[in-house]
Structure formats: C-alpha cells, structure tokens
Predict the structure.
Amino acid sequence: MPEHEESEQEPTQPEASSETKRDKTDLWADPEVARKEIEKLRREAAKYRTRASELEPLAKEAQALKDAQKSEQERLTEQLTATEKRIHSFQQRAVRSEVKALAAVEFADPEDAHAFLDLTSYVDDDGDVDSAAIQQDLKDLLQRKPHLAKPADTSPRAPKADRTQGSSGNGNRTPNDPAAVFADFMKQGLARGH
C-alpha cells in the first residue's frame, strides 16, 4: 500500500528543481529503466485489481446483510405497531366492560355510561384498569345527568288477572269434545248458507 501512496504522490508533488525534472525525464529516456518502472506499475495495478475482485463479493454480501437487516428492522417495527394497536384495543375493551359492569348497578342502560366517559384515562402505565376512578366518575355522571339512573322502583310488576278476557268471561265457552266442535262448525256453516 505504501507503494501506491508514493505513486499517487509523485505526480502531484511540485518539482523542486530542474535536476529532479531531468531525473524523471532521464528515467523515461532509458528504455530499460522505463520498462522496469512500467512492470512495477503493472504489478502494482494487478495487485490492486486482485484485491478489489476479492473484496467485491464481500462488499456485496455486506450490503445484502445491511439491506436484510433494514427490512427485518422494518418488519419488526410493523409488528410492534400492530401489537401496540391490539394492546390498546384490548385495554379499551377491558375498560368498557368494567364501566358496563359498574354502571349496571345504578344506570338504567349501562351502555350509556361509557358514552359520557373518556375511556383512555382509566388505564395506568402498567395496563391495569382503575376501577376506583371509574366508580367516582360514574357517581359524578349520575349527579350531572340523573335521567341516566335507574328508576327508584325497579321491582317487576305482577300482572293482574282480568276475568273478562278469554272464553270463560263472556259465556262462549268452546267445548273440548272434537265432535261438539265439528257440530258447532256445521251449525254456523248452515246458518250462513241459508
């Protein structure tokens, strides 16, 4: 490698004196010296071509690895983003379920409760749902919007019997005997026909 540096430096260095110029000119004036210099330069060039041809596959392989690593990095980044979205979705689903469960006690429709609350504020840094904060916010919501609460009397009402409904209340009891039903049907048919 020092030979290469010397050969690069020789043409770029300014010539100090006419004697140096004469030596270089004389170097090429003598055919034998010029031939040796040319052979030396050819060997040097061949050595660098060989080294370059040996290093070229390594450079291509290094670039391929770099590209593969970059695409692997991009793939991992996409997977991380998708996983973070799924985690966020699961956390929001857990918060909605917790809000519904806690709202079912006092709200007429538990679905209304999460419509008025910011669900993202109930998940801490560890991903846990803060039930105490949800309960407090539900109480505050009921104070602001009391129409969302369950009515005071939520016990189911028992139906009252109405004897006027049905066949026994109006006196037109139908017989249970099929022959009697058929006879009644025939009487009605004959009465309409005449």
In short: The two ends are 131 Å apart (CA to CA).
